[in-house]
Design goal:
Blueprint lengths: L1 H15 L3 H20 L4 H4 L1 H24 L5 H17 L7 H23 L50
Length: 174
């Protein structure tokens, strides 16, 4: 997981590096990644992209499923927030291998939204709504200041409006 997370971070950093010292630093990271690849040449999780992608997808899905089950049973806490957050980040890392499947993309978006939503509710002393939010216009929609204002960032650095889940109102994980 750490190897592929570093690859993902490197890919993002390469897009923004402009200064010569930044580029030199990234070259050192690239060299380090190549050294790790040689060191672990017998480890399919590093050498074989297909195996690594399957492993990361499985791990992200397990974390997501854990958090979702806890959330649906109204067991809100930091571990649920961390699990949603980590699964979302792992889904981002899986992007190293190409486009995410529709299910993985939905899980990623939902996990980011749900982590921010629960975190903001806990921070403001409110009880989060278990599971996905009801369809808009439903009287059961939570009315709290967990969103502060649309477009504000949570302490995780996401630019999100936790009162509106992205592209879904009726989320049902498989």
């Amino acid at each position: 997981v750490a190897y592929w997370t570093r690859v993902y971070s490197l890919q993002i950093a390469i897009k923004t590096a402009k200064q010569p010292d930044e580029k030199m630093f990234l070259i050192k990271i690239m060299d380090w990644l190549e050294t790790m690849k040689k060191t672990y040449k017998d480890n399919d999780l590093i050498i074989n992209d297909t195996v690594a992608q399957a492993y990361l997808e499985n791990y992200a899905h397990k974390l997501f499923s854990f958090a979702d089950a806890r959330d649906r049973s109204s067991d809100f806490g930091k571990n649920v927030v961390k699990s949603f957050y980590t699964s979302a980040m792992l889904y981002d890392v899986i992007g190293v291998f190409g486009e995410l499947s529709e299910e993985a993309n939905q899980n990623r978006k939902y996990a980011k939204w749900k982590a921010a939503y629960i975190h903001n509710c806990l921070k403001s002393g409110e009880t989060p709504h278990a599971g996905p939010l009801p369809v808009e216009g439903d009287d059961d929609l939570p009315t709290s200041n967990q969103a502060d204002e649309p477009g504000t960032s949570s302490s995780f650095g996401w630019n999100t409006n936790p009162t509106q889940p992205p592209q879904q109102q009726q989320f049902q994980p498989s």
